[in-house]
Amino acid sequence: MLPFFATCPKGLESLLNDELKALGATDLQETVAGIAFRGELSTAYRACMWSRLASRIMLQLAEFTMRTDMDLYLGAANVEWEQHIQPGQTFAVDFSGANEAITNTQYGALKIKDAIVDRLTKRHGERPNVDKRTPDIRILAHLKRNNQLSITLDLSGPALHQRGYRQQAGEAPLKENLAVAILLRSGWDITKPLVDPMCGSGTLLIEAALMATDHAPGLLRVRFGFMAWSGHNRELWQEISAEATLRATRGIKQGNTELYGFDQDKRVLDFAQENAEAAGVAAFIRFKTGGVNTLTNPADEAGWVISNPPYGERLSEFPSLLGLHQQLGDKLREQFKGWHVSLISSSPELLSCLRLRPEKTYKLFNGALACDLRNYLIAEDAKAARPLAEDFANRLKKNIKGLEKWAKKEQIDCYRLYDADLPEYNAAIDRYQDYLVIQEYAAPKTIAQHKARGRFYDLVQATQAVTGVDGRKVILKVRARQQGREQYEKLDRRDQWMQVQEHNAQLLVNLYDYLDTGLFLDHRPIRKQLGEMAKGKDFLNLFAYTGSASVHAGLGGAKSTTTVDMSKTYLAWAERNMALNGLTGRRHQFIQADCLNWLRKPGEDYDLIFVDPPTFSNSKRMDAEFDIQRDHIELLSLLSKRLRQDGVLIFSNNKRHFKMDIEALTELGLVAKDITKGSLPKDFVRNPHIHNCWEIRWS
Q1: For residue 59, what pLDDT is reported?
Q2: For residue range 398-451, what is the model confidence (pLDDT) as tens digits?
């Protein structure tokens, strides 16, 4: 009896254990991502031919304690390599793991390679060659945390999940052994129909067909690692291959399993068809172009729906995926009553959008990605799911009805549709032409995270249903309490711009790359007012962000505009906004500076000043921290030195419960009028604390 080791993806160990036992393995010991076992050489050959779950089958050559690199060299040199590697053959060594002595895997592999070369040179009289890409013999070494090193000979060659039929692959294809694990965990009866509504390049269906026709997964492979091994028994392997060929021929003739694959991408379906033909099971699979929205039940009897729906890695992909999963759940209830359903996903939140209760959940890994495999049974009397978030949907409909005509009349492309009107749906929804930006506010600590996230996803789906906006035009953002300029930090790198209209101004927004879009919608009336006040005046826009206030002032006939901000990025954005409206030339200045330091230096005076500072900032580019409540009088004092005698200063900030220091302002000779109420646009009247706004003049 020989010692062997079989590797597999995490989560498949118990399935592989059962499979190896059925193939004749004994003394099985389950570890993470693998099974140690014993058996005859025929057992290892059968595992290479028939294992649908293993990644590799390896012959264990040595195991010893390794604390130093000399331990490694001597332990490897004691292996009788002349019994495994013939003169003239090439070999390669792969090393994994580390300890204090071996911190670099390449160094570990090098020490074993040196031991092999030295021993074989001494035994054979000639030096063997190393071929890292396509060696005749591949040696694998693994160093465990307890300093135990195992050296094995790879009998598999290319990983066993590479069956040999995959001609083409779609995006993020399943590995074949994971597909088999999904089929086994689903409980699929190979005599019953199987439907994959998002089949991609067909891996699940092809593996199902191979199982149903008793087709050995290794039968299509041309090469195995043991074929160049000195201990290879060719006659034994030919017997096992002949038996597998006979069983596959019989299975193909007798097979009658119905397998159906759908996908909306015809190009990927063509790949699936080619793969099925290469596997010899195309006759059992019917591929048809179609998305989830057109999915119908193709079978006459109840069976299984098994699929690997897309789950995305970016927040921007979620709106489309939420809608897809909701739609899939609806179709399953409508078309597949009495059917079993198994779906794998790395996103439990997306699976929850099916609104189906799982009977069983398994943990599997798709590469390094932890996934849930959930098994469902669709009831015979399954009814359509209730509309999502009905209270929210009704409120959104009401808001849209009250705002659409108003926005059109005002010539506004961008406005707020919803702003946490209902406490349990804590988000803001802004329309930018035919796009929606949905910002999730951080939930109170008293609300469980999974519950808050579930409500948010319900809100997103209901928003798409009410507005009819395609999920690809819905942008999700998470907004917690922001410090200083955190809201300006880069989120994405699409560099995708949209030109929008605000009254008589054209402005550029970026919906993807930052938490804010480049346009503070609540300041819209203030910008309009500035435009009406600016004719013939010298205008200063301090903490200018993307310069939208400067645009309105310029269009209003300002004699000059000066736009000051600390950010080079936003100042360039402001310059683009001004140019978009024909506001170019020397009378329009753009200055990158720490705004407070800039004010402390001698400079021009202005008739009209707009300042909208951050609530708090500790940017490295500023000399000191800035706190609007603590420092607003110092700021206004500096601004007063730039404000002409008959000038007007519009001061705004978004700190809740901000209190103007009227007494200190009076000492400066200034008088302030609170114009907050009149500065709120119709789409923000429900949030009177969105900003504070003051009109300040000389007394």
Answers
A1: 98
A2: 999 999 999 999 999 999 999 999 989 999 999 999 999 999 988 878 888 878
- CA–CA separation, 521 and 414 (whole Å): 7
Question: Residues with Cβ < 8 Å from 108, sequence gap 6 or more?
Answer: 72, 95, 97, 98, 102, 141, 143
Strand runs (DSSP E) across 113-263, as ranges? Answer: 129-130, 137-143, 148-154, 194-196, 259-263
What b/e readout covers 165-195, taking b as 16+ CB neighbours within 10 angstroms?
bbebbbeebbbbbbbbbbbbbbebeeebbbb
Query: Pairing state of beta strands 560-565 and 129-130?
Result: unpaired
Q: Are 463 and 387 in contact (CB under 8 A)?
A: no
- From the options 3.10.180.10, 3.40.50.150, 3.30.450.20, 3.30.40.230, give the CATH code of 506-698: 3.40.50.150
Per-residue confidence (pLDDT) for residue 327, from 0 to 100? 93
Q: Give me the pLDDT at residue 491, please.
A: 53
Helix (H, G, I), strand (E, B) or coil at 153: strand
The confidence band for 493, taking pLDDT boundaries of 50, 70 and 90, is low
Residue 49: what pLDDT?
A: 98
**Cα-based distances in Å from 333 to 188, 264, 387:** 19, 21, 14
CB-CB contact of 557 with 535 (8 Å): yes
Q: Which of 587, 554, 595 is nearest to 571 (CA)?
A: 595
pTM value is 0.84
Would strands 194-196 and 414-419 be described as parallel, antiparallel, or unpaired? unpaired
pLDDT band with cut points at 50, 70 and 90 for residue 453: confident
Q: Cα(349)–Cα(355) distance, rounded to whole angstroms?
A: 11
Same fold yes or no, 176-213+255-377 and 506-698: yes
Determine the topology of domain 176-213+255-377 in CATH: Rossmann fold (3.40.50)
**Sequence-separated contacts (24+) of 251-255 with Cβ below 8 Å:** 251/212, 251/213, 251/214, 251/215, 252/213, 252/215, 252/280, 252/281, 252/283, 254/213, 255/209, 255/212, 255/213, 255/284
Q: How would you classify the pairing of strands 137-143 and 148-154?
A: antiparallel
DSSP-assigned letter for residue 557: T
- Which CATH code of 3.40.50.2000, 3.30.300.20, 3.90.1150.10, 3.30.2130.30 fits the domain covering 2-154? 3.30.2130.30
pLDDT per position as a tens digit, 89-105: 999 999 999 999 999 99
Question: What's the rounded Cα separation, in Å, for the pair 663 and 671?
Answer: 10
Which residue ranges make up each domain of the chain? 2-154, 176-213+255-377, 390-480, 506-698
Q: What is the CATH number of domain 390-480?
A: 3.30.750.80
